[in-house]
User: Fold Putative transcriptional regulator, TetR family from Bradyrhizobium oligotrophicum S58.
Amino acid sequence: MIETDPNTTQVMPDEDSSKRRQILEGARKVFMNLGFDGASMGEIARVAGVSKGTLYVYFSDKSRLFAAIVEDETVHRGTLNVQFDPARDAETMLREFGQAWIAVVCRPGGGSAIRTVMAIAERMPEVGHRYYDCVIEGTIGRLAAYLQARVEAKELFIDDCHLAASQFQMMCQATLFLPFIFQGAPAPPPHDVQRVVASAVRMFLAAYGTKR
Assistant:
């Protein structure tokens, strides 16, 4: 059972969803601006526009609130906007995947969430593990399953589809992700993303295409 602040207020069921969202949005701003250590429950309550008592009704401490933000980031903001169709040709599907993947990891504002997760993962490994499994490993697994389908269709020749999926994912990030995540450059413009992904597709098919 979650422990609450002595001055809590009762939450009505119909208020729960919108109030929780309000708290998460306020907390996200505070964590992104101040980091995990600099954030306080008092500041989060102020930015979210709720009392500390209301805040404690939903989250018993800062760690649980941060974990909830990572969960929200994972489920709602880390969603890859691409459908893997095993019948589609590899060149088209890989190009669409690469552009969608960069749109997720290099989206404006998204870098702050990734940096914060990376900074806290050593102290809260379950948070880092959850983010990695759902956003990174989950995406690799979906791409690997697609590649396996194209291997079976004789379009690709790959011994280890999981390794190949990881390689392609990293090739798409080349020159784009690291400058962005370390604040050396803003979110990459579409023409840069298209150029880098197109190069990644060519390299991938040169290595794994049956016509190589």
